[in-house]
Amino acid sequence: MRKSYLYNEIADNIADKIKSGVLKAGEKLPSVRNLSREHGISINTAKRIFLELEARSLIWSKPQSGYYINSVSYLKLPLAEASQPIPIANTREPDLLMNDIYSTMRRKDLTLFSIGVPSGTLLPSAKLKKEIQLATRNLQDGGTDYEPLQGNVKLRRMIAARSLAWEGNLKDDDIVTTNGCMNALSLCLMALTKPGDTIALESPCYSGILQLAVSLGLKVLEIDTHPITGIEIDALKKLLPEINVCLLVPSFNTPLGYCMPDNNKKEIVSLLSEHNIPLIEDDTYGDLHFDAKRPKCCKSFDKDGNVLWCGSVSKTLAPGFRVGWVAPGRYKEQILKLKLIHSISSNSLINEAIGNFLLTGKYENHLRNLRRTLQENYQKYASAIATYFPAGTKVSRPQGGLALWIEFPKHVDTEKLYNQALKHHISISPGKIFTLQEQFQNCMRLCIGLPWTDDLELKLKQLGHLAKLN
Amino acid sequence: MRKSYLYNEIADNIADKIKSGVLKAGEKLPSVRNLSREHGISINTAKRIFLELEARSLIWSKPQSGYYINSVSYLKLPLAEASQPIPIANTREPDLLMNDIYSTMRRKDLTLFSIGVPSGTLLPSAKLKKEIQLATRNLQDGGTDYEPLQGNVKLRRMIAARSLAWEGNLKDDDIVTTNGCMNALSLCLMALTKPGDTIALESPCYSGILQLAVSLGLKVLEIDTHPITGIEIDALKKLLPEINVCLLVPSFNTPLGYCMPDNNKKEIVSLLSEHNIPLIEDDTYGDLHFDAKRPKCCKSFDKDGNVLWCGSVSKTLAPGFRVGWVAPGRYKEQILKLKLIHSISSNSLINEAIGNFLLTGKYENHLRNLRRTLQENYQKYASAIATYFPAGTKVSRPQGGLALWIEFPKHVDTEKLYNQALKHHISISPGKIFTLQEQFQNCMRLCIGLPWTDDLELKLKQLGHLAKLN
């Protein structure tokens, strides 16, 4: 145990020096033998440290020579600004642009920076096919009968088991399965609100959540949000008397990618509980952490069942399968009732297959690869942005997840850029769809879940060029 | 073509004589040779007529002797009465008994007369398993990616093709897939109503629909309903000014099982269109006709897109798969928008598998067997009721579907009966859950989708006995 502590510590130490510029791009690192002598560790541990740094794209290996430090100039890109939305609840219709963008998402001729899920090539389709075939054989009725209202037991047990990693300590009885994460959020909002109620959201906020809230007749209060730490607690405190429900995406949020620090999560849970405001936590990106450790959730700090924790496999495994869940705390009965009324049950066969996939460890294997790919992608995208985009472009610093948030110089109109880019077979998500207010007209979200290729780099170069023409 | 017209005509003619008592129980029918001579038809056609009548359980074959007429004493059971609900919109919470009943539905120790779907043994699980395995191989991404918002093309094409049988003339673009039929109804109501609106429903009405309406904040207006012809048009006319939306289950309704005559369907469509009241048609039992012909739908008479026709495979194929659809007429955009917001898409893999099942004709084969079984069951259940239930018991006369509606003498309390029956491992659906008013306290629904066995007959005998003790 002590050895791995040392291994992480040393790797982090070197990583910090690289990021801060103490160790410069192009510099050669000590040999494996020297590193092992320097720190009094085994050759194997030294090798592991280098592999870890290589995995983080901080160093690269030149055959018969040694390890060299990567360029991390992108880390010098300025940080996107914290948002300052107007603290007045809004009932405006979400921008219709969202529908346009959604309609382009199946076009094979586009480079889809606008999607919100990993590219299919990064997902284990073959293994999932096998899992489904197994489930059809093993489920007694082939999955044709209704499953228990709370949902497939195996899947719930696995979600509960995985919650130990973030100190959730859930039991399978605490969980209700749903048809994907949006469906979980939808059930939560229908259970907890009535038309005219006010919902507090981060800003920028995933457009699907804005649409859901407005369609349920809710007034939307967008709260100041910092690109590294998330929603500003002081801003939230001032508006508490108006708020009926709060919905946050605190771990690797789209589009900002921050991971709200544990202390903030704890404070918000406590604050909302004190004021009897239910907290809906969308943790659908929680497994996509770039660091080794799975972050805690707000639910980890939930003492009185006031946090409804939602998740799914849509961002990590299979968007089309519609497999999600919620641990609704003290609101479980209301959630079950609505699930019964609106859709009776989830799909038993698919949920059983996903449950098995989680059980056999294939999910965790897949996640390790996916996380690594996403982190490498982030660094490559950011390097391309540093190289090709207009001077003064700011970015987010995602610590996980699928998104990169770009803030162009103020004169760049990203709705205009969206239309220009489409003519060049590139699709982006303009900032205005992530708010109901007049904000983010110079911002955009890019999906980092596309496999990195030379062509992708060319497309980013083209995007940068188009932005410069603005 | 003319021959089969003759064959049906002759079979129907004999059937009528049996039902009306002109041909008496126990009587011997003419031989095949005599029948062929009598009507100037071939021996084969004459044989077919006898097979058809045997399939309808009206005659039975005694080896080396000939065909004899079955007892159809159940046909002498008095008809259940037309309902006369109070014509005032109601916002009362549905009876909690519904939740109790739902919670018993997976118990293996109960004879579940309370379920609303065919028993698993009557469903083609093995064939469906194969179909899913095929779909996992053939779907390009194994079904992991989101499908088009409108839903799987193959499934929609097949639903459209099948609509020709009821003169629906739908195209695949007219259809949107959903997660089962309740989900289709839910989307329709969310698109067309707001809390405080009034919905007109048949009475008795499936409890799931009552719960859905109340949960959406709607006021429920229950309309007089006749057990053979369905909703009373005059009663509906009087209340039109108050009604915002109408939801009917006009073909093999649960729990009454009637098939609304075509003229009535046509008149209602016209009436509601004139008054700009959308009509949601739940056609989920439409394929379960006892007669040879698939009935027309209200949608068949829809001239201006005011009818939203909903269906699913939950009552005919696989309840657990959550495969449904709606042809929303002129309300398609609203439906699509809500589908996107609340659940993004349906499950591509499962929908593809069901689409294939329909394409290859396996569905129609299966339906033929299922219909035959349900019709035979109806006759057996009804005979048992005529034999074992209290004098004065009335029943519905289902022309299709899964339900039989029993009306006991007025002093019998079916909620009490429900509790007594549970102690004897029998589960029923008491009448009170099919209304929000004080009605049907002496009524109950039985599911005729359970395979007929001696034990089942014993259970019916027991039920009759318990009712007599009341």
UniProtKB/TrEMBL annotation, chains A, B:
PROSITE patterns: HTH_GNTR (PS50949). It comes from Paenimyroides ummariense. Pfam families: Aminotran_1_2 (PF00155), GntR (PF00392). The keyword Transcription applies. InterPro entries: Aminotransferase_I/II_large, HTH_trans_reg/aminotransferase, PyrdxlP-dep_Trfase, PyrdxlP-dep_Trfase_major, PyrdxlP-dep_Trfase_small, Tscrpt_reg_HTH_GntR, WH-like_DNA-bd_sf, WH_DNA-bd_sf. This is DNA-binding transcriptional regulator, MocR family, contains an aminotransferase domain. CDD domains: AAT_like, WHTH_GntR. In the C-terminal section; belongs to the class-I pyridoxal-phosphate-dependent aminotransferase family. Residues 4-72 form the HTH gntR-type domain. Keywords: Aminotransferase, DNA-binding, Pyridoxal phosphate, Transcription, Transcription regulation, Transferase. One of its GO terms (molecular function) is DNA binding.
